[in-house]
Write a structure and sequence with these properties.
By secondary structure, the chain is of the alpha/beta class. Helices cover about 40% and strands about 15% of the residues. The strands form two sheets. The protein has a six-stranded parallel β-sheet, sandwiched between helices.
Length: about 200
């Protein structure tokens, strides 16, 4: 909040990356920042997290193995699987389904009817994997899931926390990240950011 005569200027932002702070300081002489929101480390606290290193060419095989292991443990809940692109989401859902693991992808807007059908498939435990992009996840309202899998680590650390915050529950959710040469560099940044 900066005072200009008797007026105040306010900038509201959902995030505060360095370029936002630079922009604010370029317009305001006495900028003050007020943070209201969650502590990212607290969001992931108590959520079991695992990282598996794999080659990019082996990720599909590893994913199928994970989903089969989850199903073999009697957990027939739908696993939420995150990817970084619509192309990957559609490809992964297609490959999983063709290998006997029923999957659907959501990469953007879906109609109310599609949302209802999707929820029914999840409730009836016939859908094994829901493959989402960041945009697609914003269109889905789910109760917390037992298995959240990062097929792709996100390209921004905040997105990792957002994924967990949206779908995971402390003590109830197992988060698995597949770490390959394409997105593996993000693992160190995520660990540093979360103080791990």
């Amino acid at each position: 909040l900066a005072k200009f005569g008797d007026a105040h200027k306010v900038l509201l932002a959902g995030q505060d990356p360095p370029y936002i702070k630079q922009m604010v300081h370029s317009f305001l002489d006495q900028a003050q920042f007020v943070y209201a929101g969650r502590d990212d480390a607290a969001v992931v606290d108590g959520v079991e997290q695992h990282a598996y290193r794999t080659e990019a060419t082996e990720k599909l095989r590893v994913m199928m193995g994970l989903l089969n292991d989850i199903g073999g443990q009697g957990a027939s809940e739908t696993a939420v699987v995150f990817v970084n692109s619509s192309l990957t989401a559609d490809w992964l859902a297609y490959k999983l389904t063709n290998n006997g693991i029923k999957a659907k992808s959501v990469t953007g807007s879906i109609s109310p009817r599609e949302r209802t059908d999707l929820q029914q498939e999840m409730d009836s435990k016939t859908l094994r994997a829901l493959v989402l992009t960041e945009l697609g996840s914003r269109k889905i309202t789910l109760t917390k899931c037992k298995h959240l899998i990062n097929f792709d680590l996100p390209e921004k650390v905040g997105a990792y926390v957002a994924r967990i915050g949206q779908f995971a529950a402390a003590g109830e959710t197992n988060v698995i990240s597949l770490v390959c040469e394409d997105y593996g560099h993000m693992l160190a940044e995520i660990n540093t950011y979360l103080g791990k």
